[in-house]
Design brief:
- It is a single chain.
- Helix 2 crosses helix 3, helix 2 runs parallel beside helix 11 and helix 3 runs parallel beside helix 4.
- The chain has 13 helices and ten strands.
- The chain has 337 residues and is of the alpha/beta class.
- Helix 3 links the parallel strand 2 and strand 3.
- The longest helix has 21 residues.
- The strands form two sheets. An eight-stranded parallel beta barrel has the order 1-2-3-4-5-6-7-8, surrounded by five helices.
């Protein structure tokens, strides 16, 4: 039974994480906090359902990464499964247990996840394929598969090392050898690096690993995105990923402005609905946010107010470009995500 379920999960994920048109796929991470108050716990169920619908229907995400309790995971997955037979259909869910990777895989599978994100070497930075060769992931991978889930390894690669196409290929080959199988997908996360830790330069050029056409046709390679949205940074980074040959982007919860201080699921739902729609749009990235959200029937003005307040406070930095900014923030315009 576990094998059949894992195979079905593999097929769903491959279909979701690879765009037939060659566009980069967009899959957000949703971190669902655990309420300490029983009343808030009851109310959260409704918020999770609304969040699930918005990410599927309005954002039209390709897949979704969930961090939180299995109870929250089950609520999210149940709402997704209700979309069977409709368009858009249910999104495959990838559960994020953290760097330890210790969890009840049977419970996660039963809750509705299709895969589990597994940090290679417990999230330690990898400088070369030789680092991966020192580990053994076969037992863990087999355990995950036996519970009807697909294991998706995440490699945190050193920003100070060279990652040309042949280096990335060698890394994936070493990963396949240690896993005993070809993963359904692989997530590559760029480490901080020594220079980034010493000083932060917003204008610094992002140097990402190069993924060959041969490799991305064989295995979906997802790039991890943690840049704070605003001023076109999110769109710029995903464009760099596309140019580097990545199949898709794993949009971390760190992209949501102010989320760590105020993890409001309603705000998160509106953010991803607007941000992913914008990233998929081919239109100009300076647009009227009020006009955009007015197209939806059940899209509140909360995210517009929130984003406008954050930008006016200067928390996202300077967003004007060239000789001047033609957008009118008073009427709801702002630079793209």
């Amino acid at each position: 039974m576990g094998g059949e379920k894992a195979t079905l999960a593999h097929n769903r994920l491959r279909e979701a994480l690879v765009s037939p048109s060659g566009k980069i796929t967009l899959s957000p991470e949703v971190l669902i906090p655990e309420p300490t108050d029983p009343t808030l716990l009851l109310l959260q169920g409704s918020e999770i359902q609304k969040l699930s619908r918005k990410i599927r229907i309005q954002a039209k995400a390709n897949a979704v990464f969930i961090s939180g309790t299995t109870t929250a995971l089950r609520t999210f997955a149940t709402e997704q499964e209700e979309a069977k037979g409709y368009f858009p259909g249910p999104l495959p869910i990838i559960y994020c247990p953290g760097t330890s990777g210790e969890c009840d895989y049977d419970d996660i599978s039963d809750a509705g996840a299709s895969a589990v994100l597994l940090p290679v070497l417990n999230g330690k930075e990898i400088s070369s394929a030789a680092d991966v060769s020192s580990g053994d992931l076969k037992t863990l991978f087999q355990t995950v598969l036996e519970n009807g889930l697909q294991p998706i390894p995440e490699c945190v690669i050193s920003a100070d090392a060279s990652w040309e196409e042949e280096d990335v290929q060698a890394l994936i080959d070493a990963l396949i050898e240690q896993c005993g199988m070809e993963p359904t997908a692989v997530v590559l996360t760029l480490g901080l690096g020594e220079e980034s830790e010493e000083e932060e330069d917003e204008d610094a050029t992002v140097s990402l690993p190069a993924v060959s056409a041969t490799l991305r046709k064989k295995i979906p390679i997802l790039g991890s995105v943690s840049v704070l949205a605003g001023g076109g940074r999110l769109g710029g980074y995903t464009a760099i990923l596309k140019n580097a040959g990545f199949t898709g982007s794993f949009l971390r919860s760190d992209c949501v402005p102010g989320f760590r201080m105020n993890p409001d699921l309603a705000v998160v739902a509106d953010f991803w609905a607007a941000a992913i729609s914008d990233l998929k749009s081919t239109k100009s990235k300076t647009f009227s946010f009020r006009s955009k959200i007015a197209l939806g029937v059940d899209v509140p003005k909360a995210w517009y107010d929130y984003q406008k307040n954050v930008m006016e406070s200067g928390a996202l930095g300077e967003t004007s470009m060239g000789q001047g900014d033609a957008s009118n923030s008073d009427s709801g315009d702002f630079q793209g995500f």
